[in-house]
Amino acid sequence: MLRLFFSHTLEAHALLREAVRLTWGWEELPRLEREERGKPWFPERPGYCFNLSHSGPYALCALGHAPVGADVEQVRPRRPFLPQRALSPEELRWFQVLGGRWEDFYTLWTMKEAKVKCLGSGLDRSPGEISVPLLAPGDTGTLEGLTFTSYAGPGWRAALCSPGG
């Protein structure tokens, strides 16, 4: 079971409280801790996994019984050289063919963030070395034993990553 919650009005921890109440029936959040590389978890309930993200007014929360990574980003222009530094050559070509829009950059970036959050590795290498599938918003794909889903709305992009299918 994997559930995703999105909000443009709740902050991330309030969204987590509401998500676990609706999904698992918990009235209170268990104690939170962080793994060595920063991934949050519930030490008293290790079979219950979650991940949070927030950007600007947007918050995203993913829940499941296996590791999960989620990322949301408010679309905004960045420094022009960022795509060349953050994307692999194949991803950069895809991005440029689509017109080099920031929306398409964030589609890839949120999948990269979701992947490293799912794996619990953090950004332990150059973002260009973190492979993700080339997906349009709304699409799902697999790569390296992980399943990715890309999401989009006006002014935001998001992604979810989990093991398996």
Tally of DSSP helical segments:
4
Structural class: alpha+beta
Distance between the termini: 11 Å
What fraction, in percent, of the residue positions are helical? 25-40%
Strand count, sense and barrel status of the largest sheet are: 4 strands, antiparallel
Integer-rounded radius of gyration: 16 Å
Percent of residues in beta strands?
Answer: 25-35%
Give, in order, the helices and strands: EHEEEEEHHHEEE
The poorly predicted ranges are none
Morphology: globular
For the largest beta sheet, what order do the strands appear in spatially? Answer: 6-9-8-7
Average pLDDT, rounded to a whole number, is 95
The count of strands amounts to: 9
What can you tell me about this protein's structure?
The mean pLDDT is 95. The strands form 3 sheets. The protein has a 4-stranded antiparallel β-sheet with strand order 6-9-8-7. It has a 3-stranded antiparallel β-sheet with strand order 1-5-4, covered by helices on one side. The chain contains 4 helices and 9 strands, in the order E-H-E-E-E-E-E-H-H-H-E-E-E. It has helices at residues 12-24, 82-86, 89-97, 102-119, and strands at 2-7, 33-34, 40-41, 49-55, 58-64, 69-74, 140-143, 146-153, 156-163. It is 27% helix and 30% strand. The N and C termini lie close together (11 Å). With 165 residues, the chain is an alpha+beta fold. The chain is globular and about 50 Å long.
